[in-house]
Amino acid sequence: MKIRTTRDGFTIVEVLIAIVILAVGMLALATTSIFATTQVKVADLRTEQSLAVQQVVEMLRAMPFANVVNRAEGSAEQVGSYDIWWTVATQGRFLKQVTLFTQGPGYEGGTGWVPEARDTFVVEIAENP
Questions:
Q1: What string of H, E and C letters represents the secondary structure of 69-124?
Q2: Are the C-beta atoms of 84 and 56 separated by less than 8 Å?
Q3: Burial class of residue 52, CB neighbours in 10 A (0-12, 13-18, 19+)
Q4: CB-based burial of residue 104 (10 Å sphere; 0-12 exposed, 13-18 middle, 19+ buried)?
Q5: pTM (2 decimals)?
Q6: Under DSSP, is residue 126 helix (H, G, I), strand (E, B) or coil?
Q7: Taking Cα atoms as reference points, which of 104, 1, 32 lies closest to residue 119?
Q8: Cα 117 to Cα 9: distance, rounded to the nearest angstrom
Q9: Residues paired with 88 in a beta bridge
Q10: Which of 42, 57, 68, 99 qualifies as a FRET site for 122, CA 20 to 30 Å off?
């Protein structure tokens, strides 16, 4: 009778090493997945905010030039999930600089998701002489 000197299969050490490598890979995949989901949500909120600001800017540009005046925070224009108010500074006879302030949902690094994030945008509105 012949005695086998080699064994087929894996040792327990090889199996444990493979499991550890697989677990590290799965954790990296889960972390990347969470990061990607967060970035998609942040991009979605920024798109919504940009559209709200664009809508207000178009409204201001459609107004008669003399009617483009300050709007206080207490009477902010609500567009979607965002409140928008503005200040107007006259830059010349035919030019006004409008600083728009937004308040609504957002993401702040280090803090995370906040329900009332604020942001500022500046546009210039010119009168067609």
A1: CCECHHHCEEECCEEEEEEEEEEECCEEEEEEEEEEEEEECCCEEEEEEEEEEEEE
A2: yes
A3: buried
A4: buried
A5: 0.75
A6: strand
A7: 104
A8: 59
A9: 98
A10: 42
Phi and psi torsions of 72, nearest 5°: -75, 160
Contacts of 69 (CB under 8 A, 6+ apart): 88
Per-residue pLDDT tens over the stretch 85-128: 999 999 988 999 999 999 999 988 888 889 899 999 999 999 87
Rounded to whole angstroms, the Cα distance separating 83 from 53 reads: 10
Q: What does the block give as tokens for 53?
A: 């600001």
Both tokens of residue 104? 């609504």
Percent of the chain with pLDDT over 70: 95
